[in-house]
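### Sample
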Amino acid sequence: MGDESLAGRHSHGRRSARGSDRKTRHRGRRSRAGGFGGGSAPAAPRADAGDADACREAALTLLDAAARSSGALTRRLVDKGFDTNVVDQVIDRLTKLGLLDDRAYAQDLLRSCLHRTMGERGVLSEMTRKGLDPGLAAQVVAQASHEGLFVDSAYELGRKVARKTAGLDLKVRKRRFWSAGSRKGHSPGLLNQVAADLFVSDDPLD
């Protein structure tokens, strides 16, 4: 398959990191409900394990289904039984063609996480879980922190909790905000700042 055909095929099936997250969460819920979740079984030996064309076709199929980092795609291909050297060659080729772009994927994932009002620690953990290089993840998160995006995220979370807990005791409202903020990976110092600004009475957003 030629390089232009590869790029053309993938452009029709490209999905965002947010879409990938939704599919992953949906599969996770279905697995728990049906009782057939858990880790994937080891791949059976395959006759085409060293076939670069077969590996490339499998990679494109996975990318058509959902956006992925190079690390996540590597794991999936190895799990499918392809030879690691062949997988590395395919990943390198797709990266050179622009069909894999970890920095762009990281930025897309960052936007998805901020949309879910996640904090710095939570975003870094999510990027690592999605197979991004730790160094790249740290760079993207550090830039977002420098731009104040996690402060905005924490205040947005605070406003949501304030609206939902209107009329409750102030201590209860603060406790629920702290619980939500901690789960989403916001720093204690930032949570203190938001709580002091937004939770000063039993009424929302005073």
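The chain has a mean pLDDT of 85. This sample (Regulatory protein RecX) is used throughout the tutorial notebook.
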